[in-house]
Amino acid sequence: MTAHSDAQVRLLALGGIVGPAAFVGAWAIAGATTAHYSAISNAISDLAAVDAPRRVAMTGGFVVFGIGAMAYGVALRSTLAGRAWMAAIATGACTLGVAAAPLGGWAGDTTHATFAGLGYATLVALPLLAAAPIARLGRTRAARLSVLTGVVSGVCLVASTLGPAHGMWQRLGLTTGDIWIVATATAIVAGGGQIRWGES
Length: 200
Hints:
Number of strands: 0
Shape: globular
Radius of gyration: 17 Å
Structural class: mainly alpha
Strand content: under 5%
Mean pLDDT: 93
C-alpha cells in the first residue's frame, strides 16, 4: 500500500462522495429540465451529446465524477489490499474519456461507446475485486454485500445494452455501483483515513 497521511487519505476519499453526488445530480437535473427526454428510454450520455441543451452541465458531472473516482482510488489503495483501487482509477479515467468523446463529437460514437463500456466493466469489477480483501479483514457481511453489488450492477448494465428501457437499467446499474463507492468512501472518511468496513 502507498504511504499517505490519514488526513491525505481522508481528503482523497471525499472524491468518492463528491464525484457520484455530482454525477447523479447532473443527470437527474439535466434530464428533468430537458424537453422530450426520458430517463427510462434515453441514455445518460444523450444529455452530454454535442447538440444537447444541457451538455455543459452533464459534461461537468462526468468530469467531477471522473476526477473524484480517481482520487478515491488512491485513497482505496492506501486502505485496502488488492487491486480494487485500480478499478476505481480506471472507472474515473474511462468517465473522463466519455466526457472527452461525446456522442456526435469529434472522436465518433464508437469511441464514446468504448469508453462507456470499459467504464461499466471497471465499475462492476470494483466491488468484486474488493470482496476478498474485505473478507480477509473479517468483514464477511461487507464482503458479501460487495459481491452482491457487483452482480446487481453488472446485470443491470448488461440489460441496458439489450433492449427497451435501457435508460432505466443504465441508471440502476450505475447508481448501484455509485452507492458502493459512496459507502466505502464514507467509511474511510469516518475512520479518519483508516477504513471502517462495519461489523462482520
